[in-house]
User: Fold these one by one.
Assistant:
Number 1:
Amino acid sequence: MTGHDKFNSDELYLRKNNFCGFKYCPLCGAILNQQEIDNHRRLICTNENCDFIYYQNPIPAAGAIITKENKILLVKRAHPPRIGYWCVPAGFMEWDEHPSDTAVREVKEETGIDIKIKSLFQIYTGKDDPRSNSVLILYLADKIGGELCAADDALDVGYFDLGNLPGEIAFEAHIRAIEEFKKQLDS
Ligand SMILES: [Zn+2]
């Protein structure tokens, strides 16, 4: 899985699974210690005058399933992790965004097209991204404008027949989403 990555995926997983490698309190700079709080491992600041606790949460991401004549729009990744692998257009939410706005923005940034959200498709948890765990919120959407092109974060873009997908899909959540979407179309 790491063949296309320019950095070592195993090391990133180790770091991710160890509180993303965080060692020092972002508020006061003291050492952080692991502690069990409410049945979860947390990082607690060792400075008794500081109340910082690091809660490690998944990062929300959003994207859209867009089709043309029963083909699905996929993006070939230009950035790590999994450069050269394909995925549904999606990306991490900005601080003040609604996930539907994230989906519209990310599709525009990656594929050049403008979309209109139709409905929520499904929500997935992602645990195989070496940077962080995530929550992927996927919508169904229609193209309403723009020109299809491999934009910012993409090496390539294209519509794929659901029976003839590219072999390398980047993440388990995307693989599941495409399978479940295909099942819906077939039923
Ligand atoms: Zn602190």
Note: The longest helix spans residues 172-186.
Number 2:
Amino acid sequence: MSINWPTTTLETWSTEPLGVKNPKTWAHFHSYGGWGRFFQGLQQRKLLATRCSNPNCGEKRLWLPPRCQCPDCWHDMDWVEAPQIGNVFTWSVIKYPGELFKLPADTPLISVELEGVCTKLMSWLKEGRPQIGMKVKAVFNTERPTNSILDLAWAPA
Ligand SMILES: [Zn+2]
């Protein structure tokens, strides 16, 4: 099984911070704020996480999705590349996909466990059938990016 990338592209209106135009019957402009770098990283085939930059903070875990401030000491975070191979922690399927990006019904949603990352990353499986514990690798939509989280997907590793 292989699922095509979404065909809708969110037009950008700024790069710092990354802002996208999300077409509706009206245009809604919003900013990704401190998380823009994560979405820009996807276009460079990078999976960017954050880690606390406070040398006195005992927590040096990676957070993905990234956090702008350390949840333990509220200090600013540093951006670091996360591993791009992980394991399926659990999975489900999309029965009623949203209208904008038109992922097909029954697209597998997966929760990905990455070494050194203290959170699970919810995403989707672009190829193959999901299984708990399955090794997966990150794949990036760089040809016609949507400028959304759907530009990241996973495939069997
Ligand atoms: Zn901290």
Note: The helical segments are 36-43.
